[in-house]
Amino acid sequence: MVAAALIAAGIGVTVLRDAVADLAWRLALPRVAAVLVTNDAALAFEIGNYFFNGGAYDLDAAERAYRKARDIDAELLGPRYQLARVAFLRVNFYDALRLAKEELALHPEFKRTHYLLGLIYGYSGSYELASREFLAFLEWDPKSWAAHNDLAWVYFASGDFVRADEAARSGLEYYPANPWLLLSRGTALLNLEKKKEAEEVLLAAQAAARTLTADDWGRAYPGNDPALYSRGLLEMRNVIERNLALARGE
Question: Which of 19, 38, 91, 101 has the fewest CB atoms within 10 Å, i.e. the most exposed one?
Answer without folding.
Answer: 91
